[in-house]
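Lecture notes, unit on protein representations.

Consider one protein chain, 274 amino acids long.
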Amino acid sequence: MAKVITFTNQKGGVGKTTTCAGLCGCLSRMGKKVLALDLDPQGNLSFSLGADTDSSYTIYDVFKSRADIYDTVQHCNCCDVVPANILLSGVELELTSVGREYILKEHLSTISDEYDYVLVDTPPALSILTINAYAVSNQLVIPMVPEILSLQGIAQLKETIFAVKKYYNPSLEIRGILLNKYSPRLVLTKEVEELANIIAEQLDTDVFEQKISGSVIVAEAPAHAKTIIEYAPRSKSAREFMDLTYEILGMEKPKRTEQKLGRGRPPKNRPVEL
């Protein structure tokens, strides 16, 4: 049975999709069988991983009972993907039957044995899609950026998470809060980090020790339909995502023995050309 990890925050622009895609790449690199499930009508995760959203079945067809979830799975470069597109935005009004909170759980149970991990990207809203994700998840990861509005999104999320734990999924665990676009030199970053630790305590969780720095490389990777570990495996960002993956899994980070080279220094015993 696969472990289901959902990335969530009511606030948009906090790096949910980037984080989800990054972990897909890292887990795949570790030899794990991964399914990425896109529940955001914007379909950004699908695009980032190179999935087709126009001429194939999507998760919308699963919710509407037009297709089995097997029919939606696409085999992409780094992992399998269940894609989403803009049609998914109509699900909130179209699903009115009893038990609609468990639709995803019922369908995912038919294929979860084939994977080690299912990673779910959610929309920046508290909708029936979000509730479906929470109902099937083992763990939640809450990405945020060091801004006050991002903290408000987590505070508003708290009541929903507690309600889902009470009525739909008692075993749901908040794995931690992740700080994205992290810059320790900024005063605001430190202030928001302190507040994030207070909210984490209220949620009975922690702020991850590993932070993700802001980087142009992270923004470039989706344009090439690659995860950061595929696009720039030796970059600082790739190392941060890999270390974050180990922390989320509760595994000890491997010790790196790579030699740090000086910048622009010619090797010893080699004449410098003039």
